[in-house]
């Protein structure tokens, strides 16, 4: 076997053809499944997009490197499902660019974190993790409460997401900054437009507990509270399995 390889290395054309053949096999294995992706990805007609505030929170989550310690991919293993909930479905990451799956578990998986804790819990946890989890090794993110959220570029962010397939409408893009403020300030005149564009089930409240302001803390908590709730595909899958 090794002698054959040594002889092949001495022949440039043969080595080139061998590399092409090996790369073609690997490429076929990776590309072929994409032609049947419509058969393997679950349908989710109720799937909704991130609001501008949630999308801004996701960007902050990426900026601060949170994904390095927290995966968003629950495996099908029994201990994973019992601890974190229904295993992750491909459709749940349909509008994630980039997707935040992973295998790093310094902290727990947060794919279904939304609604598990209160907004106040998340704020305290981000300000000083040891206040709510004494053994936590997570760093504090106090500046999120101090930093006002930048909103002048939210329309551009939604436009970029639309280019890669996220179905943001022109109305959503045009009102991105107002919707971000309205979602975190329920008493403002801008709050009504958020439900009109993103649905009645949208979380609208002062996430960081500072009405009248719009901080990076509001955005990150809004994002954390929607994780696992962009679609009910997982719960429907559970019901279907129970009926079988």
Automatic annotation (TrEMBL):
Gene field: ccoO
PROSITE patterns assigned: CYTC
Keywords, in A-Z order: Heme, Iron, Membrane, Metal-binding, Transmembrane, Transmembrane helix
Domain (Cytochrome c) ranges: 52-228
Transmembrane segment boundaries: 12-35
Pfam families with a match to the protein in the record: FixO
Protein name: Cytochrome-c oxidase, cbb3-type subunit II
Superkingdom, natural source: Bacteria
Listed InterPro entries: Cyt_c-like_dom, Cyt_c-like_dom_sf, Cyt_c_oxidase_monohaem-su/FixO
């Amino acid at each position: 076997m090794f002698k054959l390889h040594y002889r092949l290395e001495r022949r440039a054309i043969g080595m080139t053809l061998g590399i092409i053949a090996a790369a073609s096999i690997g490429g076929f294995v990776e590309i072929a499944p994409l032609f049947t992706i419509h058969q393997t990805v679950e349908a989710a007609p109720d799937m909704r997009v991130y609001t501008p505030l949630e999308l801004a929170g996701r960007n902050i989550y990426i900026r601060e490197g949170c994904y390095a310690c927290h995966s968003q991919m629950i495996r099908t293993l029994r201990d994973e499902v019992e601890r974190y909930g229904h295993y992750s479905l491909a459709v749940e990451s349909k509008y994630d660019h980039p997707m935040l799956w992973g295998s790093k578990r310094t902290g727990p998986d947060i794919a279904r974190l939304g609604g598990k804790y209160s907004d106040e819990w998340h704020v305290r946890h981000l300000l000083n993790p040891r206040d709510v989890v004494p053994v936590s090794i997570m760093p504090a993110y106090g500046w999120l409460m101090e930093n006002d959220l930048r909103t002048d570029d939210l329309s551009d962010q939604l436009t970029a997401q639309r280019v890669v397939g996220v179905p943001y409408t022109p109305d959503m893009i045009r009102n991105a900054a107002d919707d971000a403020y309205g979602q975190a300030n329920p008493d403002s005149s801008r709050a009504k437009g958020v439900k009109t564009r993103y649905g009645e089930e949208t979380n609208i409240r002062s996430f960081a507990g500072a009405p009248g302001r719009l901080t990076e803390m509001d955005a990150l908590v809004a994002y954390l509270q929607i994780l696992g709730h962009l679609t009910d595909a997982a719960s429907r899958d559970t019901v279907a399995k129970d009926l079988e």
